[in-house]
């Protein structure tokens, strides 16, 4: 995905901020007769190739920047320190931004995706909410908008999409197919079928039948091979009571993966690349992202060993 990262250097000399304007080739760097910038009324709109700077702010002090977008863009603000309040305005009214602000958030040391922003001019106020002076890096990231289905349970899931276009399509659980291993048709073995927690077709009779279907059991799927069935979610009332209710957050030994799915912490850096190729509790697990250092370096094309299958009352028990 093409990503533009906007870059600008902010110089701070004795508390006075200096900018380079595209309409003025001169720098305003303290001293002289130029007044210190005060609020958004003193902020000029700049056309920057990039917006990124390092600076400091005294406790409870603020600073303003302004910029313009030439097209609709997916807009993210990154401040690498917690304790800052960032407010984005679509206009300037005197020393303050035009109310109401478009967005306001408190930083926790990472990026905040504001979302799709139309072309126009914007003013950003950065406030240090802490009592002490703090150094920080500010960056604006603008991404190309890629429309598509963002639900990974859908058959047309687009992993590159960053804006959902409502096109998600889910499996039709009424399509019959032949199962060579059982020498029978799915309509005779599994029908009627419903969608499970992961968007896979599951026998309706498995819901609340006394077995906890948490991804340990599977059926033969339309495309061949075994499809794990996961009925362990609130939408299906935890397999109608067959499974214990999942507490909020991950239980001991599990952590949220790149997509917020609970997965074994021991899978990190275990020699296997968890890039969605492997399943835990019926969910595909992703540690192949920057947050986890690409599965602590495991994502180099290695593969997990094949699975053993056991048959229990028509179910396929999937064991690693």
Topology:
Elements: E1 3-5, E2 11-13, E3 16-18, E4 20-21, E5 24-27, E6 51-57, E7 62-69, E8 73-79, E9 82-89, E10 92-93, E11 96-97, E12 103-108, E13 111-117, E14 120-128, E15 134-143, E16 147-148, E17 163-164, E18 178-179, E19 184-185, H1 186-189, E20 193-195, E21 201-203, E22 214-220, E23 226-230, H2 237-240, E24 254-256, E25 262-264, E26 275-280, E27 283-286, H3 293-296, E28 308-312, E29 315-319
Parallel strand pairs: 16-17
Antiparallel strand pairs: 1-15, 2-3, 4-5, 6-15, 7-14, 8-13, 8-15, 9-12, 9-14, 10-11, 18-19, 20-21, 22-23, 22-29, 24-25, 26-27, 28-29
Explain what you see.
The protein is mainly beta. It folds into 3 domains: 3-143, Jelly Rolls; 178-246, no CATH class; 254-309, no CATH class. It is 4% helix and 42% strand. It is built from 3 helices and 29 strands. It has helices at residues 186-189, 237-240, 293-296, and strands at 3-5, 11-13, 16-18, 20-21, 24-27, 51-57, 62-69, 73-79, 82-89, 92-93, 96-97, 103-108, 111-117, 120-128, 134-143, 147-148, 163-164, 178-179, 184-185, 193-195, 201-203, 214-220, 226-230, 254-256, 262-264, 275-280, 283-286, 308-312, 315-319. Strands 1, 6, 8, 13 and 15 form a 5-stranded antiparallel β-sheet that branches. Strands 7-14-9-12 form a 4-stranded antiparallel β-sheet, with no helix packed on it. Strands 23-22-29-28 form a 4-stranded antiparallel β-sheet, with no helix packed on it. A hairpin with a 5-residue loop joins strand 24 and strand 25. It is elongated and about 80 Å long. Mean pLDDT is 76; it is low at 1-33 and 301-315.
């Amino acid at each position: 995905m093409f990503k533009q990262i906007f870059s600008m250097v902010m110089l701070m000399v004795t508390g006075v901020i200096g900018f380079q304007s595209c309409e003025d080739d001169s720098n305003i760097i303290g001293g002289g007769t130029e007044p210190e910038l005060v609020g958004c009324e003193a902020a000029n709109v700049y056309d920057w190739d990039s917006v990124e700077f390092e600076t400091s702010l005294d406790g409870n002090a603020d600073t303003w920047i302004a910029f313009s977008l030439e097209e609709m863009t997916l807009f993210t603000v990154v401040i690498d320190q917690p304790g800052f309040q960032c407010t984005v305005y679509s206009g300037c009214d005197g020393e303050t931004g035009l109310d109401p602000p478009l967005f306001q958030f408190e930083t926790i040391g990472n990026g905040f995706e504001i979302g799709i922003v139309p072309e126009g001019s914007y003013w950003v106020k950065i406030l240090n909410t802490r009592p002490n002076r703090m150094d920080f890096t500010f960056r604006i990231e603008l991404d190309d908008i890629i429309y598509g289905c963002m639900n990974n349970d859908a058959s047309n899931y687009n992993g590159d999409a960053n804006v959902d276009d409502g096109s998600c399509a889910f499996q039709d659980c009424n399509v019959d197919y032949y199962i060579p291993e059982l020498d029978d048709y799915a309509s005779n073995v599994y029908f009627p079928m419903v969608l499970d927690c992961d968007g896979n077709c599951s026998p309706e009779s498995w819901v609340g039948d006394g077995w906890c279907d948490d991804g340990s059991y599977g059926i033969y799927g339309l495309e061949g091979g075994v499809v794990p069935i996961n009925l362990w979610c609130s939408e299906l009332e935890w397999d109608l009571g067959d499974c214990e209710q999942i507490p909020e957050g991950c239980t001991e030994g599990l952590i949220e993966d790149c997509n917020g799915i609970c997965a074994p912490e021991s899978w990190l850096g275990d020699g296997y690349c968890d890039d969605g190729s492997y399943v835990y509790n019926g969910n595909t697990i992703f540690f192949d992202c920057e947050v986890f250092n690409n599965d602590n370096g495991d994502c180099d094309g290695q593969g997990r060993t094949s699975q053993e299958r056991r048959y229990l009352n028509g179910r396929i028990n999937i064991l690693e």
